[in-house]
Structure formats: C-alpha cells, structure tokens
C-alpha cells in the first residue's frame, strides 16, 4: 500500500505535483497508444501487456535493489493468494478498458474513472464499515442519479463504465489492506498472470493468428512498449504520493478521465448526446461536492 507522507519542503511539494501530473497525463492520453494497436484484439494486447510489464518491472526491482522485498512476498502464501485476486481484477480492468477505447466507447471509459472515487466511498462503507459524511452521501446519490438517468433516457445501461469503476475500486480496496508496495505488488501480479498469458500467446502462434513478428516492426515495438506505458505512470504516482497531501493527489486524479473525455469528444469525435451531457453534469457536480468535502475534512483532521 502506498502511504502519503507530509511534504517536507516547498520544492518537494512542487516536485510531487510534477510527478502526479506526469502520471495522470500519461493515463489520460493512453487511449492514443491503444488506438495505435486497434488492429490487434484487446485480449492479445492485454496478454502482451502482462508479460512485457513483468519483465520490465523485474528489471526495475533489480535496479532498485528490492529483490529481497519481492522474494519475501513470494514466500507468503496468503499474500500470493491476495495478489492473485487483485491480478485477476486489474487484468479484467485492463482488458475492458483497451476493448472500450478501441471500440469507440471512450466516453463510457472516462465516465467509469470519474465515478471510481465515489465507488470507493461505497466500497469503504460496505467492506470497511466506514461512515459516510452528508456531502459524501449527496455525492453518491447524484452519481447514482446520473447513471440511472443515462440508463432510462439513453435506453442503455452503462455497464462498461460501472464495470471499470467496480474492478478498479475492488482492486484498490484489496490492495489497501495488503501490506505490499505498488511496484513489488504489480510485479507479483504480472508474474502470476504471465504463465496463462504465455500459454495463450503460444496457442495463437500455433494457429498462426498472433500479431507479434508477423505484421510489422512498428507493431512489435508498440506491443513491447506496453511495459513502460504501464510501469512509468505507476512509478510517477508513487513518487508523487510520497510528496503530496492526500487531498492534493485526490483532486489531481481527475486529470486522467478528463484527458480521455476530451480525446473522445474533440479528437475521436465520439457521439456526445444531450443525455450524456446531463449525465456527466450530474457526475461532475457529485465530484465537486466530494472533492470539496474531502479537502475540508482532510485539512480539519490534519
């Protein structure tokens, strides 16, 4: 679990803001990368993302001399079981996100990451017995109203947005109670997923329907490049979390889905109906209430 420490100096705080901005901007602009792989099935991309990320993360662990920490996790059966569950959740999230982006559902994907903080509030209530403050209750009700309005008026349940929010929310919930760092935890998760990923890619190769080494060098490099695209923003986020207050980091997290939203509407020209305008308006109102309450509460407690 990543802990948020008190910034020691103004320069440290500024550096933290830079690291956080880099992390969230990369996440927000990542659809451009996945669109470049639109000719590759989402499941195949996900399998490559798992394998190459594992190899990349192991190199980082060795370079940072954190092998002992990694080895200790491997000796802990309960921890491995926990990280297997989070590995399944994060791989499902990756797959659905890539599929949504490459099938022109980027607006739903951005909606999912907008409502993710509010889903976290509900999960905390259900599983950690956290109490909701009145502004949080109002925010959750507004978000629920937005989803319900979209379902009734648009005639289509936003399952992509809710599944992305739930899988990432449950992932964060389980990782919150698992005493393992972000880098080592992700390395173990990708390690656990690598064997089935390798088997799947070998199967595709045997059927001669795989992509790597068959189409172009550019496509091969893009598939391998899934590793730094996965690890780099995570590392930037970890560095930011050590230097910023939780309230600051929480407000900056909306850069990611905002980037997706702007790309979907203004660059990829996804249809943006009046119904969706009202849905996003309700979600944004909920987030303003939630974020304002979080900042006030955090400063009061501090």
Looking at this protein, list some descriptive labels.
single chain; 302 residues; mainly alpha; 13 helices; 80% helix; disordered N terminus
Would you mind describing this structure in some detail?
The chain has one domain. The chain is 80% helix and 0% strand. The radius of gyration is 20 Å and the shape is globular.
Structural class: mainly alpha
Q: Report the oligomer.
A: single chain
H-E string: HHHHHHHHHHHHH
- How far the N terminus sits from the C terminus, by CA atoms, comes to 20 Å
- Quick one: overall form? globular
Query: Number of folding domains?
Result: 1
Work out the number of β strands.
0
Percent of residues in β-strands: under 5%
Mean pLDDT: 89
H/I helix tally: 13
Note poorly predicted spans.
1-7
Rg, nearest Å: 20 Å
**Helical content (DSSP H or I, runs of 4+):** over 70%
Largest sheet: none
